[in-house]
Amino acid sequence: MNCTDFREMADSYLSNELLTETNHGFISHLEACGPCRSYLERIRNIRGRMRDAVCSAEQYRMREGFERTCLAKLREQTRGGGQSLAQRFFGWRPMALVAASLVVILGGYAMFSSFTKVSAEPYLVAGLDENDIVNVAAADHHMCAVDHKANLAVESASENPLYTGLDKLVSSEIGSQLGDQKLVSAHYCKYKGVSFAHYIFQGDRDTLSVLVAPAEDVRGTLKEEMVSFSSPDYQIAGFEVNRNAVFVISDLDREKNRRAANALTAPLKTHFEKKLGFETLGFRVFDTHWNAIG
Amino acid sequence: MGLFRNNNTGDDLLQNFEEEAMPFTQDLFRVAMFLKRNRDAAEDLLQETLMQSFKSFHRYEPGTNCKAWLTTIMYNTHYKQLKRETRLSLVEDKEELIAKTVAFEAPIPERITDEEILTALEGMPEHFREIVVLCDVEGFAYKEIAAIMEMPIGTVMSRLHRGRKLLRNELAVLANSYGIGLEEESENKKKASGGES
Questions:
Q1: Is A162 helix (H, G, I), strand (E, B) or coil?
Q2: Alpha-carbon gap, residue B69 to A164, rounded angstroms
Q3: pLDDT tens digits, residue range A116-146?
Q4: Minimal CA–CA distance to B105: which of B185, B30, B26?
Q5: Do B118 and A184 count as a contact with CB atoms less than 8 A apart?
Q6: Nearest partner of A211 among A175, A278, A168, A166, judged by Cα
Q7: Residue in A33, A39, A50 nearest the CB of B197
Q8: CA gyration radius for chain A?
Q9: Looking at chain B, which residue has its C-alpha nearest residue A151?
C-alpha cells in the first residue's frame, strides 16, 4: 500500500469499515510510515473535535423539559387523553377491576361469536388470508405509506397508461371530501405480484392511500356493493370499476373512509370509460375472497 | 418480530419505549436540528418522530440498533413533511458539480476553534452534511446510513468521501487565513504525489 492509498482509506479505517485484508495492509503501512501516522492522527483528531463541538454546542441541545413534554404527550396518547371523570371520581383500582372484567367479557364474546383467526400483523384484516387482495393492499399501504419500509418488500412497478391522469382526479375527489388530506405521493408499486397505482394523502393526523390495480393482477368473485373491512390499524373500503380494483385505506374512522371511497366510484368509472372508449355496465364490488396471483 | 407485541398493555409498551427509545432523544434532536436548521421545526420533527415510533414500537426488534431505527423514522417523517411543504425537483448533476470543486485534499488544521468547525460543517451542501453528521458525529455504520437515507451504500461512501474532503478544505481555508498549515500543505502535497513507502 502506498501513501495515496493509505490516505484514501484513512477515514474508512477510523469508521471500522475496512475489510480484514485491507486492514492488515493499512496497519503495516501505518507502522512503517511516520507522515501517514501523523496524517491519521490529525484526521482522527478533527473528527473527535467535530463530534465534541456539535455535541456541546448550545444550538444542538434540547431545551430543558422538552423530553418531559414529549413523554407527557405519549402518555396522553396511550391513555386516550388522560384520566376520565369516572377515573378521577372512583380512583384507579375499581376502574381497573371494571376494565379487566370488560376485557374478559368482550374477549369471551369475540372468541365465541367469531371463528376468524386473529391477524398476525395489526394492519391485516383478521379472517382473510394474508395473500387475499384486501390484505395485499392493506400491507402495501402499511409498508409503503405508513411504515416507510417499502424497500424491504414493495418493489417499484412500471407505469400503466390506463392510470395516466388519475392523480389529479383522485386528488380533487379526496380533497373535496376530506379537506385536510393533501396528495403527497403518486407512484407505481408492486407487492406480492400486484401492481398498484398508489396515491398517498397526508392529513393533519392521518394517512390515506388510494390503491388501484388492474383486475388481471387479482382473481376472485365479484359482487354488487361497496365492501368495507377493518383491521386493528386501518379502515379499508374496496370496489371494482371497469375491471380495476380500487381500495381506500386509512386510519380515519369507518364512515369517513367509506365516504372517500364512495366519492371515487363515479369519477373513476367515467375516467376508465374514456380511456377504454366504451360504455360499461357500472361498477361492481369484489368480495372478501379475492386472492393475489403470485 | 418484536418482543413487545401482543401481551403488552399500553402502559407496558410505554415503559419499554421509555427505556429503549427515550435515551436517544438528545441525539435525535441534534439530527433534527441538522435537517431543519430551526429549533421550532426540529422540536416538531422530534415530537412527530417519537409519536410515529411509539405507534410502530411493537415492530421494533429488541437487540437491534434502536437509535438507527428511530433515525430512520425521523428521516421518513422529514421527507414526508418536505413533500407536503414543497415539491422540488432534484438537480441531477448537483453532486457531480460539487465533486468537481473538490480537487484536492487540504491539510488538516489543528488550531481551529469549535465555532469554526461548526461554521464549516453548517456551510456544507445539505446532502453531504447529513451523511457526515450521521457517520462522524452520530457514529452510524455505512450500512445503517444507507438504510436510514434509503440509498445505495456506494452513494453513501462516495458522498462521505466528498463531504469529508469539502469539510477539510473549508477548515484549511480558515486555517490558512490565520497562517496555519501552509508548511504542512506543501509537505503533504509532495508526499502524497510521489511518496511510496
A1: helix
A2: 36
A3: 444 467 888 877 777 778 888 898 888 888 8
A4: B185
A5: no
A6: A166
A7: A33
A8: 28
A9: B150
Scanning the structure block, which residue is given the C-alpha cell 375472497?
A289
B11: nearest CB among A70, A78, A185: A78
The tens digit of pLDDT for each residue in A42-59 reads 888 888 989 999 999 998
Q: Do A4 and B164 touch (CB under 8 A)?
A: no
H or E stretch including A223?
strand A222-223
Of B33, B117, B150, the CB nearest to A49: B117
DSSP class per residue in B137-167: IT---HHHHHHHHTS-HHHHHHHHHHHHHHH
> Which grid cell is A256?
369517513
Q: Which three cell numbers stand for residue A13?
A: 479505517
Between helix B25-36 and helix A66-78 the angle, nearest 10°, is 100
CA atoms of A261 and A248, how far apart (whole Å): 6
How far apart are the C-alpha atoms of B37 and B189, rounded to whole Å?
36
Contacts of B72 in chain A (CB under 8 A): 148
ipTM above 0.90, yes or no: no
Residue A227 and residue A237 in contact, taking contact as beta carbons nearer than 8 Å: yes
Tell me if B25 and A62 make a contact (CB, 8 A cut-off). yes
Decide if pLDDT at B97 tops 80. no
Closest CA to A204 of A237, A182, A174: A182
With CA atoms as reference, report the closest residue to A123 among A42, A207, A181, A43. Answer: A207
CA quadruple A236, B53, A73, B133: dihedral sign = negative
| Cα B55 to Cα A121, A251, B51, B52, distances in angstroms | 13, 12, 6, 5
pTM value > 0.80: no
Grid coordinates belonging to A48: 473527535
Q: Count CB atoms within 10 A of the CB of residue A56.
A: 10
- Report the distance separating Cα A237 and Cα A245, nearest Å: 11
Closest approach of B117 to chain A, Cα-based (Å) = 6
Rounded to whole angstroms, how far apart are CA atoms B118 and B108?
15
